[in-house]
Amino acid sequence: MPIAKNKGKKSASAKGATARKDMSENGFKRLGHRAGVKRMNRRVHTMNRQELARVLREVIREAGILAESARRKTINSRDVTTAIERQGQIMYGYD
């Protein structure tokens, strides 16, 4: 009976691998291109990730408050759009 080669090996997440990047470098390039940016320094990507995480935390916190005030345990898309509007951001395509 052959011995399995992968027996006992752990996955990368079980080993405690480095933190996963939330958004790829190409994702930031696409967003920048859409906003009219021609070039981006590599150091900008880490700052973008930090800012994206901050904005997401604020939106999720606000959406959670909205769902809680409606006595719901689930955040729906309307909570998210309302939270974004409350922060003064403009979302096109949502009423």
What spatial form do the alpha-carbon principal axes imply? extended
Termini gap: 64 Å
CATH architecture call of one domain = Orthogonal Bundle
The stretches of 5 or more residues where confidence is low (pLDDT under 50) are none
Order of helices and strands: HHH
Main sheet makeup:
none
Radius of gyration: 20 Å
Instruction: Please report the first level of CATH classification, the CATH class of one domain.
Output: Mainly Alpha
CATH topology title of one domain: Histone, subunit A
How much β-strand is present in the residues? under 5%
Oligomer: single chain
Q: Give the strand tally.
A: 0
Within CATH, the superfamily of one domain carries the name Histone, subunit A
- Helix count, DSSP H or I runs of 4 or more residues: 3
Structural classification: mainly alpha
Describe this structure as you would to a colleague.
The protein is mainly α. It has a domain at 25-86: Orthogonal Bundle (Histone, subunit A). The protein is built from 3 helices and no strands. The protein has helices spanning 25-35, 43-69, 77-86. Helix 2 crosses helix 3.
Please describe the topology of this protein.
Elements: H1 25-35, H2 43-69, H3 77-86
Helix pairs in contact: 2-3
Summarize the structure.
With 95 residues, this protein is mainly alpha-helical.
Name some characteristics of this structure.
single chain; mainly alpha; Histone, subunit A; 0% strand; 95 residues; 3 helices
